[in-house]
Every structure is written in C-alpha cells, then in structure tokens.
C-alpha cells in the first residue's frame, strides 16, 4: 500500500462509502501536481477489484492492481502524438513502469519520458472512443470494472462530450476514477456529475519523510525546489544534477541585470524547453522567490542557504517587499499564458522585464 500522508481520512471515507453500497460510479479526485491523487486512485482501484472486497493489498486482485496489470483496470492518461494507434496503448508499458516507480508521478516527469521537444500532453478523441469499446466488454473477472483517468483536464474539447456521455450513462459494475490537478479546466457538466474528493496538500514534514535515507543537504535541495510536488522530487532525486537550478539561476540573474540582449538570449533558451518542463520551471521560480521573500522579510533560518548555483541569502536580497506582488503577478500570469498556448517567447519576454522592475522595487 502506498503511504497516505495527509489523506488517510479520505481513503477511509471512500472505503466506508463502498462498504455501505453508496460509492458513486464516477469519482473526481482533485490534488496538487505530484500530490496524493494518483496513490489514492490506485488504493481505491484495489478496493474495487480486490478478491476479498476489502482492499487487502495481498490478494491476487490487489497485487495485479499494484502492478497496473489487472485486466479489469483500464488506464487512460495524457499522451503525445506520433504513436501507431493514437491512443494510450502506445505508451502503456512506459506509463506502468513510471507509475510503479513513482506513484506520485507529475506531468513534467511523464512528458520528459515520452515527448520530444515541444510536444504537448493531451488525451485525444481516439482514446475516449477506445474506452467506450473497452468498457462495453464483459469484465474479465466477472466483477467490477474500473476506469482510472489521469488528468481529464488534458482531454481535447471534442472528446470531453464523449467522456460526459460515459459518465451520464453508467455501465453496470463500472466505476470511473478521475484524477485532476486543475479541476477548473473541466467541463462544468463533468464536475457536477462526479462525486468530489479533495486531497490536502503535503506539508514539508510529509514531503521529507519520503526520503528517510537521504542526507540533510539533499533533503534541503528537494524541499527548496519541489515541495509540495513530491512526484517531481522523486524523479529529480535520481539525478540531482538535472533539476533546473542552473536554468533558474541564469534566468533570475539575467532579469536582475536587465540587459535586453541577454534577456532575448535566455528567453530563446527557455522557449526551447518542453511545455510541461517550462511550467514546472515557472512554478519552481514562484516557490523559490517566495522562500527568498520570507527569508528577507522575516529573517527565518534557512535549512540550507547554499544550493549549488542558488544561495538563499543572496536571492532574498533581490526580493524586496515593494516588488513581491509584481513578482507573483508576473510569474502567475506567465504560467497562465503558457497553459493557454499564448506565444511563449512574448510571454517570457514580458515576464523577464517585469521581474527586472520588481527586483529594483519600482
């Protein structure tokens, strides 16, 4: 069983609803990126497909769910174009491997695994059509069937209505589990027809308890860069040299200097990153600059001030109270622009000059 840090109560509520015969056929689990949404969905799938109907974790049904190989567990997740069938079947082996190794899998890690350059993650119409066909078949074990759909917000508009039909016209003994990191992007009709379950975010203690054998320095780096995105931290822990700290440091130094030529060069570099990787970088930038602001304003002790190319004390001197609001506004607006597919270089250029203004406290 995957350890549930902050949401064991939520798992108990799901089990109680199932035992009482009141579990809704369509369940929407909302969690932060790299949070406990996917682990909870796996545990719920075990409960629904358990031979003993208890989610024991040791029976044949539960162990096959743990390996993501149960014949009545249908997995749907965002993919990139270029596969032979145009559905998740093209990437199912990779997805199983990634999720078994990292149950808190985040979109950026998954995109790096299967995408090249700027390919975007999406769930195409063909995938929802495949689901309709798969779920119309008789359950292999003669009991329940489960559809676990990760990131329904990445479904193409044309496919959303097909998913809605699947939810509105439930099949016998079929349960749908949606795991979303951005519920606001779903159709309101899909949200209204699902039972909502909300995961609490992980705090720093929960986050660090996943790495009991790591040094304090490594824990500090992972916490500074990724908390509360545990999925990204697990992936980065395998290769701490590839954690975007150098990219972040170079971008911030360039913004601080404000040289148009250097800003153009760094914007071109950032624009070449995969979309999910760029979103992770911007989110991490918000996180790190927020840490710098609190260190500067409150004088809080930092567990580690030297993180390779980043020094928290030096960073904090650039984040002044008068510019903190503009920093948050600029990076938040840039993140929304990237999600809405607005021209990347334009958005990054505007953001870089806004950061230059904010660092000067103007």
| The CATH H-level homologous superfamily of the largest domain | P-loop containing nucleotide triphosphate hydrolases
The CATH topology assignment of the largest domain is Rossmann fold
Structural class based on helices, strands and sheet pairing: alpha/beta
**Strand line-up of the largest beta sheet:** 2-3-4-1-5
Output mean pLDDT: 86
Binned, the helix content reads: 40-55%
Largest sheet: 5 strands, parallel
Protein model, in words:
Helix content is 54%, strand content 8%. The protein is built from 17 helices and 7 strands. Helix 2 (37-49) packs antiparallel against helix 3 (60-66), helix 12 (245-257) packs across helix 17 (344-359) and helix 13 packs across helix 17. It has 2 domains: 8-198, Rossmann fold (3-Layer(aba) Sandwich), CATH 3.40.50; 244-359, Zinc Finger, Delta Prime, domain 3. The protein starts with 7 loop residues before the first helix and ends with a helix. The protein is globular. Helix 7 (157-168) links the parallel strand 3 (145-150) and strand 4. The chain has a 5-stranded parallel sheet, sandwiched between helices. The protein is of the alpha/beta class and 362 residues long. The protein has helices at residues 8-19, 37-49, 60-66, 92-101, 107-114, 125-135, 157-168, 188-192, 204-209, 216-226, 230-237, 245-257, 260-271, 275-298, 312-318, 321-339, 344-359, and strands at residues 26-30, 73-76, 145-150, 174-180, 195-198, 306-307, 310-311.
Quick recap of the structure?
The protein is an alpha/beta fold. It has helices at 8-19, 37-49, 60-66, 92-101, 107-114, 125-135, 157-168, 188-192, 204-209, 216-226, 230-237, 245-257, 260-271, 275-298, 312-318, 321-339, 344-359, and strands at 26-30, 73-76, 145-150, 174-180, 195-198, 306-307, 310-311. It has two domains: 8-198, Rossmann fold (3-Layer(aba) Sandwich); 244-359, Zinc Finger, Delta Prime, domain 3 (Up-down Bundle).
């Amino acid at each position: 069983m995957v350890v549930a840090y902050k949401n064991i109560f939520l798992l108990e509520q799901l089990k109680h609803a199932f035992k009482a015969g009141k579990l809704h056929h369509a369940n929407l689990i909302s969690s932060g990126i790299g949070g406990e949404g996917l682990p909870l969905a796996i545990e719920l799938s075990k409960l629904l497909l358990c031979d003993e109907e208890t989610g024991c974790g040791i029976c044949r049904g539960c162990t096959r769910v743990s390996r993501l190989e149960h014949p009545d567990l249908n997995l749907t997740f965002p993919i990139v174009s270029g596969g032979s069938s145009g559905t998740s079947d093209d990437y199912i082996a990779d997805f199983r491997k990634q999720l078994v190794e990292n149950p808190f899998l985040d979109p950026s890690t998954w995109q790096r695994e299967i995408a090249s350059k700027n390919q975007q993650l999406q769930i195409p119409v063909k995938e929802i059509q495949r689901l309709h066909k798969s779920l119309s078949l008789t359950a292999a074990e003669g009991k329940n069937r489960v559809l676990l759909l990760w990131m329904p917000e990445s479904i193409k508009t044309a496919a959303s209505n097909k998913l809605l039909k699947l939810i509105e016209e439930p099949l016998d003994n079929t349960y749908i589990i949606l795991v979303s990191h951005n519920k606001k992007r779903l159709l309101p009709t899909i949200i209204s027809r699902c039972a909502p379950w909300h995961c609490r975010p992980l705090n720093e203690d929960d986050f660090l308890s996943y790495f009991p054998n790591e040094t304090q320095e490594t824990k500090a780096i992972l916490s500074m860069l990724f908390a509360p995105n545990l999925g990204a931290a697990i992936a980065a822990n395998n290769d701490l040299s590839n954690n975007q700290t150098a990219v972040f440091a170079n971008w911030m130094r360039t913004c601080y200097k404000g040289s148009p030529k250097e800003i153009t060069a760094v914007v071109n570099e950032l624009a070449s990153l995969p979309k999910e990787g760029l979103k992770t970088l911007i989110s991490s930038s918000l996180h790190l600059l927020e840490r710098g602001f609190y260190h500067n304003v409150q004088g809080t002790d930092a567990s580690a001030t030297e993180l390779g190319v980043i020094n928290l004390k030096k960073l904090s001197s650039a984040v002044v109270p008068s510019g903190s609001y503009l920093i948050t506004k600029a990076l938040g607006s840039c993140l929304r622009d990237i999600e809405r597919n607005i021209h990347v270089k334009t958005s990054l250029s505007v953001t870089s000059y806004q950061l230059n203004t904010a660092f000067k406290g103007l």
